[in-house]
Write a structure and sequence with these properties.
single chain; 135 residues; mainly alpha; 3 helices
Length: 135
Amino acid sequence: MSADDHNSAKAIADAVNEISERASLLVREEIELAKAEVSHKVGRIAKGAVVGGAAAVFAIFGIVLLVEGLAWLAYWALPVGTGQIFWGFFVVAAVLFILGGFAGLLAARLFKSSSPPMPAMAIEEARKTREELSS
């Protein structure tokens, strides 16, 4: 084996080693990009959940007072005898159950049509890298 053959074999081995290191670095960077994307999306979802929870607490207390008022209004408007207050509350409860059913159906449709948080940029970069490496 001559010196030129030895040098060319070493050059090929060095090139393969360098390509392997760069590919490994590229894969690690794509994994980090995916982690960053997912953590960013999860963070935004968490912040939205906290703010939505606070809004829900205020809305629930407001709705309780509103429903109480509607029940008394229904009692006043219904042609029932005095002392039969419960009919106003039953009417309002029936309306709330109907509205709750419609809201539940709408929520089920929205959950079915939503997609989980995916690292779209990292997946696209990985697809481009795979195409470049295969060609």
